Task: structure prediction
Amino acid sequence: MKANGIKALLLDLDDTLFDDGHATLQAFSVFIGPHAARFSESEAELFARWRACVDRHWRRFEAGELTMAQQRHERLRDFLGLPHIAEDEAARLFQPYMDAYRSNRRLTPGAAAFLDATAHLIRIVVSNGGTEQQRAKLAHLGIAHHFRHVVTIDDAGAAKPDPRIFRHALALENLAPEHCLMVGDDLERDIAPARRLGMAVCHVSHGRHAAVFQQLSQQLQNA
Result:
């Protein structure tokens, strides 16, 4: 990646700056307690199945088939094998998960130092989450002040990898793609579409956040 000419960073949030994997695991450990007797699998096996349910119904949310609340309740119904649970009961059963998820929010390693080191650049969050949810995360994490804009599926009417969400973010500051760097953990949603639009890209993966952020900070010091 050539840092010269980079004026702005487009940043994914979940599992890029926010440690969603940690919060999800802690929340699932709380959630599964009252239901563990229903299953014969180990907690690790159950968690893998939970993640599959999350992905399945999150994609339906991204496609506009479900609201944020509906996708949460659908993953619960799917996981528990109880497709006919009413909305109010699904919400009640899901609440311990939400409480634990929110109390376990934290930054990924190196994210705070990276944001401090790139204060000279325009920073824009580009996320497939809902606006209210993602702004609450940024506020809780104490990093909301770093970003000029938070662009979500609600704002753009499209989810990554649809190019419309990236173009919406670029238009907010009249940015040319070649002057932007997209940083994200998802090759399908973050990296491939940004590269197709002509942006520089940086992929961060689990266990590599601190090293990647440190290297990227050094490269961008003179951007």
